[in-house]
Design goal:
Blueprint lengths: L1 H19 L6 H21 L1 H16 L2 H28 L1 H8 L7 H14 L2 H17 L3 H22 L7 H25 L12 H17 L1 H13 L6 H36 L3 H28 L1 H9 L6 H27 L1 H4 L5 H25 L1 H25 L9 H22 L3 H6 L2 H25 L4 H5 L3
Helix pairs in contact: 1-8, 1-12, 2-3, 2-6, 2-7, 2-9, 2-11, 2-12, 3-7, 3-10, 3-12, 4-7, 5-6, 6-9, 7-8, 7-9, 8-9, 10-17, 11-17, 11-18, 12-13, 12-15, 13-15, 13-19, 14-15, 14-21, 15-18, 17-18, 19-21
Length: about 500
């Protein structure tokens, strides 16, 4: 379901690129800043802090088998969360121009871009209410093992935005406003979609506002978790702020590159982190430290075996991918070149991004949000320092590279903390495992480099030929990689088994 979500997301971005382009006008940068704020909260709530704080507490309730206590907890959680979200959203809508000043100060001197961004932000900000309640519903469903429902829900966002581009945009004087209304509608539809599934498990409950100890505990855990689990998104917001001072198109180039990097991160990294969190929480509740460590070890092996070749593939195929997906309509060849540089820089950090997503649940499952928050603070400072240094020499590419380096720092410090606290004890054979993956990825990368045709030839291809050629090269890369792993002695059984 996460794969389906990412595929529809790519289709959505292809249509965005065709409608908005990147460097040819103000609409693209304006929309991506206006969308960045609700999308940032979606990452925090749907994939980050709220889930990391809520799921372990919910799992502890379910492990104890007290359904009535679970229902009471959910009822009070929904009431408190709904009230907070309403207040935050009201402030956000009223203060939209101030938020634009804070997040994209480079727009202040460009009246058209600034006013358009503020107008769209007022439309998109209420998405926060819907998506936060959706994420709560997803946390409940995941705790009950209904992972597919929650994973499918983002597809509704993508379909809503696709519909806005195709049917609503042609009817509006400013077509980009259709995308803002598409975001608003998507939030409502996503929440509506999940209600029947909550009813099926007996968790569609009337919200309450009275005080509740466990609800307070979730919010106490959530404070540090907001920073810890969302450090890459926070770094991206900071870098978008810096990019707003660069040439027009810089914000959009970073957006398209980030979206492509997010494909393997979402399909595998976020999906794996989502699935292991309830299981790790149950193992901690049962005081089974050995099983906890074994599950972490199994997850990390999958991260390495998937993320390393994905990073190599994204870097080598950056231009063919961008030409195939986005080089239509307003998205010109210069946009391809600039986005490709950012994508290659993001690809460097892909293993770090995915490792952090899987390592952090090792703390969150134990209801420890302070340790990853402290580590995220270090990564944040490093990103700021590197961004301010590299942007001078490499422009938007330097911003992407700074985030990638910070991601590895974050992952490395999380790993060290898990080892120091004796939470995670690596299994046998990691040295040889690393060698096999690195060698197989290197051979795959070399095969793609020497086999690919020049970018100019990709531009001249028809749409069908581009898609066909790119699909064949991706398939060739996968086959080379798997074959090399097999020849180097790594068997599927070693990856499928854990514990």
């Amino acid at each position: 379901m996460t794969l389906l979500s990412r595929i529809t997301g790519l289709i959505r971005d292809i249509l965005f690129a065709r409608l908005l382009g990147a460097s040819s006008g103000v609409s693209a940068d304006a929309f991506y800043v206006a969308f960045a704020i609700p999308n940032f909260f979606r990452r925090i709530f749907a994939e980050g802090a709220f889930s990391q704080a809520f799921v372990p507490v919910m799992s502890a309730h379910k492990t104890r088998g007290d359904e009535e206590a679970s229902r009471d907890f959910v009822s009070h959680m929904a009431g408190r969360l709904g009230l907070i979200l309403f207040v935050v959203t009201l402030v956000g809508v009223v203060a939209a121009p101030l938020l634009v000043m804070a997040l994209a100060p480079g727009f202040i001197d460009e009246n058209d871009k600034f006013n358009l961004t503020a107008a769209m932000l007022r439309i998109t900000f209420p998405y926060l209410i819907f998506i936060s309640l959706v994420s709560m519903a997803a946390g409940i469903l995941n705790t009950y093992g209904r992972f597919g429902v929650a994973a499918f829900t983002p597809v509704i966002l993508n379909l809503s935005l696709i519909a806005a581009v195709i049917w609503l945009a042609p009817l509006m004087e400013a077509p980009v406003l259709a995308l803002a209304w598409g975001v608003f509608a998507a939030g409502f539809l996503q929440l509506l979609f999940q209600l029947p599934f909550l009813r099926n498990i007996g968790m569609l409950i009337r919200p309450r506002l009275a005080a509740h100890a466990e609800v307070g505990k979730v919010f106490r855990l959530m404070g540090p978790a907001i920073f810890a689990s969302s450090i890459s998104q926070i770094n991206m917001l900071v870098n978008r702020l810096l990019a707003s001072f660069l040439v027009t198109g810089s914000v959009s180039w970073l957006y398209y590159a980030d979206r492509l990097m997010e494909f393997p991160l979402g399909v595998f990294g976020i999906a794996l982190a989502t699935v292991i969190l309830p299981s790790l929480s149950r193992k901690h509740a049962n005081d089974d430290g050995a099983a906890f460590s074994n599950l972490m070890d199994w997850s990390l092996r999958w991260v390495i075996v998937i993320s390393v070749p994905s990073a190599v593939g994204l870097a080598v195929l950056a231009k063919p991918i961008l030409i195939t997906l986005f080089h239509y309509g307003a998205f010109n060849l210069y946009d391809v070149e600039m986005s490709a540089l950012a994508l290659m820089a993001f690809a460097v950090g892909l293993p770090g991004f995915i490792l952090a997503k899987v390592l952090a649940p090792g703390f969150f499952a134990r209801q420890d949000t302070k340790t990853p928050a402290r580590i995220a603070g270090i990564a944040f400072i490093i990103n700021i320092v590197l961004s301010l240094s590299l942007v001078y020499f490499l422009q938007h590419t330097g911003l992407a590279l700074a985030i990638s380096i910070a991601a590895f720092v974050n992952a490395g410090l999380l790993f060290r903390a898990l080892r120091q606290k004796n939470i995670y004890r690596p299994g046998a054979g990691w040295g040889l495992f690393h060698v096999r993956v690195i060698v197989a990825s290197a051979i795959m990368g070399l095969g793609l480099v020497f086999g690919l045709t020049e970018s100019d030839l990709w531009v001249e291809m028809t749409v069908f030929t581009r898609i066909w050629s790119l699909s064949l090269w991706i398939l060739a890369g996968i086959l080379i990689y798997i074959s090399c792993l097999w020849l180097l002695g790594l068997r599927p059984a070693a990856l499928l088994k854990h514990g």
